[in-house]
Design brief:
By secondary structure, the chain is an alpha+beta fold. The protein is built from two helices and four strands. It has one domain. The protein has a four-stranded antiparallel β-sheet, with helices on one face. The protein is rod-shaped and about 105 Å long.
Length: 150
């Protein structure tokens, strides 16, 4: 009896599984990079929105004479300004799910502070009317009595 060997030009199961494993490995690396880039983009958007808030807060102070005294909510005093409200919405859209905003002014209405926690990358951002140097990452929070980032 003669045996006939078939020499099809197809792939073996092992070869197909190896190719699928390589594709899965590469796609997981790409997804991790995209996730990191997305988080950095969200953090950048928050930083930019907070910078815009600081500019608008000065416009508010020049128009109204102060930031509003003893503000403890994000909907009163300087934080009631429509531009600042839209920046707060932008910040919440880019922060981690369930993030909270803290908004304070001092008793004279001359100081303000704003913070958001948590970010998608962890930590928090805080800004006060001390300028860009007060924008920091880490455990910074707006202090209720001082209206500064600490």
């Amino acid at each position: 009896m003669k045996y006939k060997f078939y020499n099809d030009a197809g792939f073996t199961l092992i070869e197909l599984l190896v190719v699928i494993a390589i594709i899965c490995l590469l796609s997981s690396i790409i997804l991790a990079s995209v996730s990191t880039a997305r988080n950095k983009g969200q953090t950048g958007a928050i930083k930019e929105a907070m910078h815009q808030m600081s500019i608008q807060a000065e416009v508010y102070r020049l128009t109204n004479g102060s930031f509003g005294a003893n503000v403890t909510t994000c909907s009163a005093g300087v934080f009631s300004d429509p531009v600042i409200q839209s920046q707060q919405t932008e910040i919440l859209a880019n922060a981690a799910s369930g993030a909270t905003l803290s908004c304070f002014t001092d008793s004279t209405g001359n100081l303000w502070a704003f913070s958001v926690f948590p970010l998608t990358t962890g930590g928090s951002w805080c800004i006060d009317n001390g300028g860009p140097g007060s924008l920091g990452v880490g455990s910074y929070t707006a202090k209720i009595n001082l209206a500064i980032c600490h």
